[in-house]
Amino acid sequence: MRNFLSIILLIFFIPVEIKAWGFFAHRKINRQAVYSLPPEMIGFFKHHIEYITENAVNPDRRRYAVLGEAEKHYIDVDSYGDSALYYLPRYWHQALEFYTEEELRKKGIGPWNVYLTQLALTEAFKRKDINAILRLSADLGHYIGDMNVPLHTTKNYNGQLTNQYGIHGFWESRIPELLAEEYDFFVGKADYLERPQYTIWDAVTWAHMALDSVLHFERIVSSRFSEDKKYSFEERGGINTQVYSKEFTKAYHDMLDGQVERQMKRAIKMVADFWYTAWINAGQPDLNALVNIQTELPEEKFEYSKPLDVREHDDMAKKESPSTLRRAFLSSIWRPGL
Ligand SMILES: [Zn+2]
């Protein structure tokens, strides 16, 4: 019976969908970025806006199927010691002069990967390769989104080192899902980036500087809520799941004073800037001519016999105490008379 129960518990606490910036936020960021593009680009991107939106989350799904993908989504700046933000090389080839590739990958290669993806997008524009343009634009939007999330810049990525387990998904999924309706996503027109490598490192710097508030304010708000007010249960995919309560989420959000909205807006603007810059660098190919070309956009398959053992950014399961698990389990299956 005991074994049976633990198997059931495991089943119930495998995350329904693995998220980063929350699937909701990634989709929103890619979608909104389209509206900042210049007239020469917007027709093509609007024509494919559903693809750009839906495929914004592919890189996260790929993490479990493709070796080398997971480390593209983060950089543990603080694992390099003090002042790392100032001395870490902005260019990948320079970074390889100071560190082994293995070490760099272990600590995350997020910002360098953004630039490499942008170069690939530039090449796709030059070739007028519709499939590659769309796939790489969607990917690039995702990676830039991640670099604007404070918890993607630290080894304490899920509050696991400060007893705040679950904060990753809280900040980047729960908050936008509950409150982004109120946000103003107008970011203006895309700008050309002279040095995209520096722009993406600015994003990392900015995001990392916001980390202190992310963690500190959660601790303050937690001290004002009892455990049963901090969490509540909501149905997710037919499963009664423990989530941060709406009251707690609002209180934390108020204290952050617009931080999540600011970061989302920075991400949207940056995604548009990177797409635009890639297009300019490719010699401004005529995208309107591509709109009417019938194309079959292949769906990416994520096949694996066993998911890769990679970092779980927002896994909630491990933080649960046995009593909370039991409570969640009972409330998820209990029916009167059973
Ligand atoms: Zn990601």
TrEMBL record:
InterPro entries: PLipase_C/P1_nuclease_dom_sf
Domain of life (superkingdom): Bacteria
A GO term, aspect molecular function: hydrolase activity, acting on ester bonds
Name the record gives this protein: S1/P1 nuclease
Source species taxonomy: Bacteria, Pseudomonadati, Bacteroidota, Cytophagia, Cytophagales
